[in-house]
Amino acid sequence: MNRLLPHRAAAATAAIVMCFGLAACSSSDDSSSDSSASTPSSSATEEMDEAMGPFGAGCSAVPTEGEGSVDGMADDPVATAASNNPLLTTLVKAVTAADLGDTLNSAESLTVFAPTNDAFAKIPAADLNALLADKAALTKVLTHHVVEGELSPEDVAGEHKTLAGDTITVEGSGEEFTVGEASVICGNVDTANAKVYVVDSVLMP
Question: What residue range is the signal peptide (predicted)?
Answer without folding.
Answer: 1-23
